[in-house]
Design brief:
single chain; two-stranded parallel sheet; 3 domains; 5-stranded parallel sheet; 345 residues; Zinc Finger, Delta Prime, domain 3; Helicase, Ruva Protein, domain 3; Rossmann fold; alpha/beta; 60% helix
Length: 345
């Protein structure tokens, strides 16, 4: 069984193993899934180099033509070096035959990275990747106390700050369910405390609060409902108030991961109302009607397209820090346009 233990995951991803050319990165913490997939891509292809070194393939295209994945994986890089081919599992389309072909004859210059939400032990992709020596499965679960301490230390050290003991305790009580969201919140806190030596507990209370979270959630809802005008107004207000674009993008990723799971449950017979009411973490009651409406707008294939747009925006915003907020704003509008096109059809 080739399963990478949580304690070994970051070390494994930082030093790609040529013997394991297929990686399955999955789990309930979708922020951690995204972060680890991006970290591995950087380790293989570097930052901002050849854009063809990181290729994203659509699951529907692979399911329709399983041989296309092997063709892409075995293509000779135009400028040399190593390549990463990313695929996100979504819906009920099966790509196990295409992955099995890769495992039977692993490529020399490419890695295939499959990302997914929570998968049962009996899930075909898990069984395939855990059983083959040419693959590795990396589960991603909510951060433990030690993981949160490491994340906080990474962000505060990068910002040249320290954090008071009581502030650390307060901060850890408010984050942890999703790695990407947690990192975004700590980064936002560091921006707020810039110019000070130490982050105090009052800083945590001022920044990681309900009011800003509600404003972000409302903006994400406008995006998911296809209301471009309200999205633009809400996003501009958030940026003007000091909320970085990546915080909004992180919330949007988390929301669309929920929509993906809920839409699959709806397709299996559950009602949108019941899914929204039982959501964990709970959805604020004033949002529930809007979120239920969104489930009627978004098919699994469209959710997958939205997640791909948001994932790419997070990467591009880090590569182009000077215009990061604009990059994310454009991505949010692209997702809103998808929702609007559904309403018109």
């Amino acid at each position: 069984m080739v399963v990478i233990k949580p304690a070994d995951a970051d070390r494994f991803l930082a030093t790609p193993d040529p013997a394991r050319r297929v990686l399955l990165i999955y789990g309930g913490d979708q922020g951690l899934v995204s972060e680890r997939a991006e970290r591995f891509a950087r380790a293989v292809a570097g930052d901002g180099g050849d854009p063809l070194s990181h290729v994203r393939l659509d699951i529907d295209a692979i399911a329709d033509d399983p041989g296309s994945l092997a063709d892409e994986a075995n293509a000779v890089p135009l400028f040399g070096g190593q390549r990463v081919i990313s695929i996100r599992l979504a819906g009920n389309r099966s790509i196990e035959p295409a992955i099995a072909t890769i495992l039977s004859a692993p490529p020399v210059d490419s890695w295939v990275v499959v990302t997914a939400g929570e998968l049962r032990p009996s899930a075909p992709m898990r069984r395939l990747c855990e059983a083959d020596q040419a693959a590795a499965a990396i589960p991603c679960y909510a951060d433990a106390d030690r993981d949160l301490d490491r994340l906080i230390d990474e962000e505060t050290r990068a910002a040249g700050l320290t954090i008071a003991a009581d502030a650390r305790v307060a901060l850890k009580s408010l984050i942890g369910g999703d790695r990407l969201v947690s990192r975004s919140e700590v980064a936002k806190l560091c921006l707020y405390a810039a110019g000070n030596d130490t982050i105090a507990v009052d800083d945590v209370g001022a920044v990681i609060g309900d009011a800003s979270a509600f404003a972000v959630d409302e903006t994400v809802d406008m995006m998911a409902l296809g209301d471009s005008a309200e999205l633009d107004r809400g996003y501009r207000r958030l940026i003007a108030s000091g909320t970085p674009g990546f915080v909004v993008a992180g919330a949007a990723l988390r929301h669309f991961n929920f929509l993906e799971k809920a839409r699959a449950a709806c397709d299996a017979g559950a009602t949108a109302k019941s899914l929204v009411e039982r959501a964990r973490p709970p959805i604020f009651f004033r949002r529930q009607a809007d979120v239920a409406r969104q489930l009627g707008l978004w098919s699994l294939s469209r959710v997958a397209r939205a997640l791909a747009i948001l994932d790419q925006a997070m990467i591009d915003s880090r590569l182009h820090g000077a215009i990061a907020d604009e990059v994310i704003g454009q991505a949010l509008q692209l997702v809103a346009a998808l929702a609007a096109s559904t309403r018109r059809s």
